[in-house]
Design brief:
Length: about 170
């Protein structure tokens, strides 16, 4: 019996108090250089086999965020974080994890906070300045799920993002 070894990616849903979601610009050493995404990325190879343990998931996400943003999220993550999956058919699994409102501002890399409308504008931009994949694709849907979740601090953004997700489901 063959064991599936998926590529696993973890992304953080970090909000500002006004409800805008943190996105980062991908650097030269990353795929999709210049495009925007949630902060996070792939689990290191040596941890993939252990990645079904939620503690490893939390540790890996905290390590990635510290490296990419300088933000220490270790004390924000719940012992059993809620995972919002987005799986591609090529064994490429991505999970968005809501961290919540974080008072610290990233000091590494290029970042901005976006509303659902600003996120849509990013998704419609041209390559090297758009949300990874573009409108309706996996990263766009994960960001909208973060903004539409009950943990999102802005009710208007929750409603707007939820409507956008429904529209994507109708069109795609």
């Amino acid at each position: 019996m063959e064991i599936i070894r998926p590529r696993i990616r973890l992304y953080a849903g970090i909000f500002r108090a006004d409800g805008k979601l943190l996105v980062k610009r991908r650097e030269k050493d990353e795929s999709y250089f210049g495009d925007w995404s949630l902060p996070g990325g792939g689990i290191e190879k040596e941890f993939v086999d252990k990645s079904l343990d939620e503690r490893i998931i939390a540790q890996e996400l905290a390590r990635k965020l510290m490296k990419e943003t300088g933000i220490d999220i270790a004390h924000y993550i719940q012992p059993m974080p809620a995972l919002y999956p987005a799986i591609l058919p090529v064994n490429d699994w991505a999970f968005a994890i809501i961290i919540g409102v974080v008072d610290e501002f990233p000091y590494k890399g290029i970042f901005k906070y976006v509303s659902p409308v600003e996120l849509l504008e990013l998704a419609q931009e041209s390559t090297r300045n758009r949300l990874v994949g573009g409108e309706g694709k996996r990263m766009h849907r994960m960001c909208l799920r973060m903004l539409a979740s009950r943990d999102s601090p802005n009710y208007d953004y929750r409603k707007e993002a939820g409507e956008m997700l429904q529209e994507i489901q109708r069109r795609w």
